[in-house]
Design brief:
alpha+beta, 2 domains, two-stranded antiparallel ribbon, about 30% helix
């Protein structure tokens, strides 16, 4: 018996057949992949800390104002019909790291801008596979049938994970 009974995550090394071969990469692509871990764990963390320290001093920053304008008045519930805001509206809420409150807006998400979707679930917790910790989430929404099909940085992935959406990026449709 383990602490992970009922969860497949710890079993991944047992049922996988090894590392996937990545498609041919350019020299720049290989360098980016090598630097991804130190960049994300160290450099980006310090840059974000400095950025958010400076923005806290300026409460009238454009990004802060846009986020306040887009905050939902009524909480989203499972099954609600929503409209994903336009890319211009969403971009106005993002920081220089293309994130809002730690949630990244990925290039694959642009295709859903301006579309109507249905809410699958409002997230409260998720398993972070980078450190195998259960983490709390507030204001993060999952939409029905809106999934990730892999990223250019890591290549093709058949896992089909749900994309995380901030509630500020969504607008409830009356009805």
């Amino acid at each position: 018996m383990s602490d992970f009974d009922g969860c497949q995550l710890p079993c991944v090394p047992k049922f996988s057949t090894g590392a996937a071969r990545l498609s041919a990469q350019t020299g720049i692509g290989r360098i980016k992949q090598l630097l991804a871990v130190p960049w994300n764990r160290h450099v980006k963390k310090w840059l974000k800390r400095a950025y958010y320290t400076s923005i806290r001093r300026n409460v009238n920053a454009p990004q802060q104002a846009a986020v306040k304008d887009f905050a939902p008045a009524i909480p989203f519930e499972q099954g609600d019909l929503i409209r994903v805001r336009s890319s211009a509206e969403i971009l106005s809420t993002l920081d220089p790291f293309k994130e809002l409150k730690g949630c990244a807006f990925l290039p694959d998400m642009y295709q859903y801008c301006g579309t109507q979707q249905r809410i699958l679930k409002s997230m409260r917790y998720f398993m972070d596979e980078r450190d195998y910790k259960l983490k709390k989430a507030r204001g993060v929404i999952l939409l029905e049938n809106v999934i990730c099909n892999g990223t250019p940085a890591f290549g093709e992935c058949d896992r089909c994970c749900f994309l995380f959406w901030r509630e500020e990026w969504l607008e409830k449709i009356a009805g």
